[in-house]
């Protein structure tokens, strides 16, 4: 019998609570590369850059004097219990009590991450001759007292909830942010304890749902690619798209939903141990089938975003899924010329589904899952096309396409192109750039000039509210087909 109970956060069947995935397979805890033109200020003490994502939180501990990265951490955003997507959390945060709970959960988790990094760094301090050992708390405290500055970036909703601002403007048209400029506050005023004496800087939004994380992405790309026509895409639960050319820039957000990150999918999960992260053709005619890889070398438990995109691409290529998103029946797939072994993976029942793995450790893709992915792909791609139309550009006019964020870093570009997620540009123009929001946050932490430049850039970028753009609905419908 199919299991029906689902986690209220990630929507995965029997996930046991999003907090179970403490160590995440994400680039938010990996080292980063700054633009060649970036020059950090020689500061004093330590600082932390936080990337506050809807799904994942990233933190990096820096030596402000040398600009060296000392420690990094990534955790699941505990607010997932209030909804997997941004809109759900905005609606919940309209209530004072709910807003307080969400803000407290987030601050406590960020504080915990800072403590963990400080404790890790403090291990070296405890081991030094003459220090006399000491407890972990003493070691963390010795490091923590030197953390004088933190920069936080996030989408508009996450930033407002962090600041304890009721996101009223985001809850109704024209979806305006409830704060405009960089906010500077002592950590204790936001509820931090370990970082209570740390000066916090929350970067401003560009507009609407396009927040400080997108601003950080833009600043990085602008620093690297001055004078070029660049499309930058940070694909996540709330996807941000930026287009810069000839000194002008447009930005918009697309409500992609959590499907591309494994949420709202029957057997979807985070990129954690047990996740199918890659799907590819397996075998040759007449025994052609599929092959898959699982993170952590354990039996499959679910499928994450990169695996979902690979799977969808393969099923489209082999004729299991039609271009309109229809998951074909066994008979229809055979008539479409799909490989026989793949056809046998189709199961009929209450809802048609496709077996991705084996019967001993089954992971399925259902017809409803394909529809969720279809909506996500259509939302991201139509947002890209809308900005290109606004600028009077075509995809082949672009000098480059930057894919930011964990999802953009790990996906197969070929799979993304086949399902229509990316515009038709040569492969060499596509850069899987990594965690640019985290990189931009670190640039603002390490350089006062960059921090001030980002505040100026937030006012110069033209925000495009897609829902108010004439012709956007038609554009969205035209990109619903894979």
Overall average pLDDT: 88
Strand order of the largest sheet: 3-2-1-4-6-5
Q: Calculate Rg over CA atoms.
A: 23 Å
Largest sheet descriptor: 6 strands, mixed
**How much helical structure, as a percent, in the residues?**
25-40%
Explain the overall architecture.
The chain has 482 residues and is of the alpha/beta class. Helix content is 34%, strand content 20%. A six-stranded mixed β-sheet has the order 3-2-1-4-6-5, sandwiched between helices. The chain has a six-stranded mixed β-sheet with strand order 17-16-7-8-9-18, with helices on both faces. Strands 11-10-12 form a three-stranded mixed β-sheet. The protein is globular, with a radius of gyration of 23 Å. Mean pLDDT is 88; it is low at 1-25.
Structure summarized in a few sentences:
By secondary structure, the protein is of the alpha/beta class. The chain contains 15 helices and 18 strands.
Record keyword descriptors for this entry.
alpha/beta, 20% strand, disordered N terminus
What is the fold's blueprint, element by element?
Blueprint lengths: L45 E7 L3 E8 L4 E9 L9 H7 L3 H32 L8 H9 L2 E8 L1 H7 L20 E4 H4 L8 E4 L9 H13 L5 E5 L4 E7 L2 E7 L20 E8 L6 E6 L7 E2 L1 H14 L11 H6 L4 H4 L2 E2 L5 E3 L8 E3 H25 L8 E5 H6 L2 H6 L11 E5 L1 H11 L1 H13 L1 E2 L8 H7 L4
Parallel strand pairs: 1-4, 4-6, 7-16, 9-18, 10-12, 16-17
Antiparallel strand pairs: 1-2, 2-3, 5-6, 7-8, 8-9, 10-11, 13-14, 14-15
